[in-house]
Amino acid sequence: MTRTIIHTDGAPAAIGPYSQANAAGGFLFTAGQIPLDPATMTIVGETAAEQTRQALTNAQAVVEAGGLTLTDVVKVTVFIRDMAQFGNINEVYREFFAAEPPARSVVEVSRLPKDVLVEIEMIAHRG
């Protein structure tokens, strides 16, 4: 099986030794995307909802750089710092996945890179 590294300037550059995404066997696996502005590498938003919108925008850019769209996403994992923000995150999430949303897990964690409130990773499949 061949693995292809995916990179786009439409999402933040990796802040560690990892790729934005890898494609293999018809699947695309994104790295966790945090709410950084790709141009300035600064955090976008102060609320969980604002940060969710930017993290989803970044993840969407990576998926699209791999030649897929959000309709090809089959699984999303959302890491959040405060489960009390679940409803606010869902409101923004629905904007990106209004119909036939992918499977999803939401996990509360104690800390995320750069102390952001949200990190999102996706798995898409070329069907």
What's the SSE blueprint?
Elements (H helix, E strand, L loop, with lengths): L2 E4 L14 E4 L2 E4 L17 H18 L7 E8 L5 H11 L6 E6 L9 E8 L2
Parallel strand pairs: 4-5
Antiparallel strand pairs: 1-2, 2-3, 3-6, 4-6
Tags for this model:
alpha+beta; 60s Ribosomal Protein L30, Chain: A; single chain; 127 residues
Give a brief rundown of this model.
By secondary structure, the chain is of the alpha+beta class.
Folded structure, characterized:
The protein has 127 residues and is of the alpha+beta class. It has one domain (3-125): RutC-like (60s Ribosomal Protein L30, Chain: A, 2-Layer Sandwich), CATH 3.30.1330.40. It is 23% helix and 27% strand. The longest helix is centred in the middle third of the chain and has 18 residues, at 48-65.
Please write the string of helix (H) and strand (E) elements: EEEHEHEE
Q: Give the helix tally.
A: 2
CATH architecture: 2-Layer Sandwich
- The total beta strand count reads 6
Determine the CATH topology: 60s Ribosomal Protein L30, Chain: A
Helix content: 10-25%
Mass-distribution shape: globular
Number of domains: 1
The CATH superfamily bears the name RutC-like
Radius of gyration: 14 Å
Strand fraction equals: 25-35%
Contiguous uncertain segments of 5+ residues:
none
